[in-house]
Design a protein that fits this description.
With 324 residues, the chain is of the alpha/beta class. It is built from eleven helices and 13 strands.
Length: 324
């Protein structure tokens, strides 16, 4: 399968302040705050939902097509993704804007002050999927992830107009979208991804019941945190897959992206929904054990050993053929 993943491309600049923000605030001067914090650490991480998902697919041996907009400072990040099996040929490079950036300082009480600069992400709305499809010889599935809202709407409309199967995955952008936009983005999707909280928010904002949404999408894929994932189809029994045992819980950031990477790769292998979800859960477990969204290493023997322990010999045999 030729799978394109659209979504934000960003870097995270994370800093640690050894004190407490609260100690620096003067109650009667909050209308004129002027503060500078001397931080101890700076951690620059590669991120953005598009690259996170594509990186995971590349780790599993896939060849995902990243679709998004980055700045003229993207060269080093592009080289990293290219080395890890990601097709970056359809990334739009802005001539005037930096790559999107999240800058955040965390104090000793884990309070945070952060800013998100959208930068080149705003140019994602200028990307045409037909050009992507023509370059790679057609598309079998497009995942429409959190990105510039106008880009998400354009990609969805184009998929519908060109009869390209698509997966709707609003994640972080669901909070700023209204009911009409969400209805447009999910109606006709082959897959609808969300976590449990987002599932309720989708129903609340659209005014559609769970049954009505299931009638409008092919599959509803709901991640359940430590309990795994549930896949629902209209008129069919739900499929529930548990998570493998964790060796450590280091950082949950990027876990949902890793699940999507494994699930989409499993679909491309043709191993079925349950097996695809198991691959997604196993990959997500590797991410939660690692600090950073693209810092894990997939060691195939270890992956298969843990996968077999979690899901059994039959499941492992089907997956091992493709992972090898």
């Amino acid at each position: 399968m030729r799978i394109a993943v659209t979504g934000s491309i960003a870097t995270d600049h994370l800093m640690t302040f050894p004190g407490r923000f609260a100690d620096q605030l003067v109650a009667d001067q909050l209308h004129t705050v002027s503060l500078s914090f001397l931080v101890d650490n700076l951690d620059v991480r590669r991120g953005g939902v598009g690259p996170n998902i594509c990186f995971g697919m590349g780790q599993l041996g896939g060849s995902p097509i990243l679709v998004g907009a980055a700045g003229y400072d993207f060269d080093e990040y592009r080289a990293w993704l290219d080395r890890h099996g990601v097709d970056t040929g359809s990334v739009r490079i802005s001539e005037v804007l930096h790559t999107a950036r999240f800058v955040c300082t965390t104090d000793k009480d884990h309070n945070q002050i952060g800013s998100f600069y959208t930068g080149a992400m705003s140019e994602a709305r200028l990307i045409e999927l037909k050009a992507v499809a023509d370059r790679v010889g057609g598309l079998d599935l497009v995942l429409i992830g959190a990105d510039d809202p106008e880009a998400m709407l354009r990609h969805t409309e184009e998929c519908k107009a060109r009869s390209i199967p698509f997966a709707a995955d609003f994640s972080q952008q669901i909070a700023r979208m209204n009911g009409e936009e969400i209805r447009l983005l999910l109606d006709g999707a082959t897959y609808l991804f969300s976590n449990e909280y987002e599932k309720g928010l989708i129903e609340s904002k659209t005014g559609w019941t769970d049954e009505e949404i299931l009638s409008r999408v092919g599959h509803r894929v709901t991640t359940l945190g430590s309990r795994g994932v549930r896949i629902e189809r209209a008129g069919e029994p739900a499929i529930e897959v548990a998570c493998p045992e964790e060796e450590a819980k280091v950082d949950p950031t990027g876990v949902g992206d890793a699940f999507r990477a494994g699930f989409l790769t499993g679909l491309s292998w043709g191993v079925g929904l349950e097996r695809a979800a198991q691959v997604g859960c196993m990959l997500a477990t590797l991410v939660i054990e690692t600090l950073g969204t693209q810092e894990y290493t997939l060691r195939r023997a270890n992956f298969m050993e843990r996968f077999t322990k979690a899901y059994g010999e039959e499941a492992a045999t089907q997956v091992h053929t493709h992972l090898s």
